[in-house]
Amino acid sequence: MPYILPKKPAPTSFDAMILKAAGDASDFTAFAIASGLDELERETNPEHDAFTFVFRYRGSERDLLATYPGRLDGLWRRGDGTWLAAGDTRGLVHIRPTGVEEIGVADSRGIFSAIWGTGDHVFAVGGFPAFAYYWQGDRVSSLSLPDGTDDIRDVCGFSHDDVYFVGAHGQVHHFDGTRVTRLRVPVSHGLNCIVRFGADRMCIGGYHGALLVGRGSRWRYIVTETADPLHGIGVLGDRVYYGAEHKLWSSDARTPPVPEFPFHTHLVNGLVDAVVVSNHLEAKLYANGAMHSLDTKVHRDAATTVP
Fold first, then answer.
1. What pLDDT, in 10s, does the model give residues 195-222?
2. What percent helix, strand, coil does the chain show, rounded to 5?
3. Looking at the domain assignment, is residue 300 inside a domain?
4. 42, part of any domain
5. Which domain holds residue 220?
């Protein structure tokens, strides 16, 4: 008789990848997904999409605040300490120490990709089709977008009436508190991320190594000499950080970018005083000129409880 090898037991822990992070080096919140765990879950539940693990890092400690049964992408902290999130959701997800609450938007029409706010003003954007929602306190409105707007990927601003949206096909839009207009920029590649760069400029990253710095009608193209897509960028001090060619790079927007560390960086998230870099296997906190490993292990039993 042929010998049948015994079936290997399913793993009980998985490496997660940090998608988003916000806060400061001593206390920050992060979203992470574990692709291996999601694949295992689909063996018994083909309808399963993805778990999002909400971590809180404080020094060497890490707490699991919540496990959300879906994909969360946007993350922003309100003045009262509540974290607001959005993703493959019906509206905004409120993350508090007591648990998670989703507050839907009537006739929500797409998948959220990012969220940003200031004071009581909150903007959340997404695609399929493209949309932008604007909360003023508890009142929400849908912003009218220019014809041809396609798949908005990120949002950031200086104030509630000076907000930028970026997306597919080199689209950059500006909201002045009244209307949204499209801006001219020197690229046509898809744009994935935008962050504030200093007191009066924005920095945008996208496909084919696209990196732009500017504001309004004036944008400068930064030569990164890579064809890798920039899925995330972060600002620390007077430099912007991005991942390409299996390294973490930085630029001051005046001189050519330089490699900082030989770390396979897929995503970069900027904190107040540090950056978080991650790939599918590990994540690190870059602060005070040094890299510190972050615990991203998740156990399978953590996916069965949603606080």
1. 999 999 999 999 999 999 999 999 999 9
2. 5, 55, 40
3. no
4. yes
5. 13-230
Distance between CA atoms of residues 301 and 304, nearest Å: 5
Say what the pLDDT of residue 135 is. 95
In a domain, 120, yes or no: yes
Mean pLDDT of 42-58: 93
Measured distance CA(290)–CA(271) in Å, rounded: 15
182 neighbors 169 (Cβ within 8 angstroms): no
- Domain for residue 255, yes or no? no
Question: Which residue, chain included where needed, has tokens 């991320």?
Answer: 193
Phi-psi region of 289 (alpha: psi -120 to 50; beta: other; left: phi over 0): left
Q: What is the mean pLDDT of the chain?
A: 92
Hey, CA dihedral for 305, 275, 190, 282, is it positive or negative?
negative
208: phi then psi, degrees, rounded to nearest 5 = 60, 35
Whats the size of the chain, residue-wise? Answer: 307
- Eight-state DSSP code of residue 143: P
**pLDDT confidence bin for 107, thresholds 50/70/90:** confident
CATH number at residue 131: 2.130.10.10
The tally of domains found in the chain comes to 1
- Block residue for tokens 């707007």: 149
CA distances from 14 to 1, 37, 66 (A): 36, 6, 17
Quote the CA–CA distance of 52 and 43 in Å, as a whole number.
18
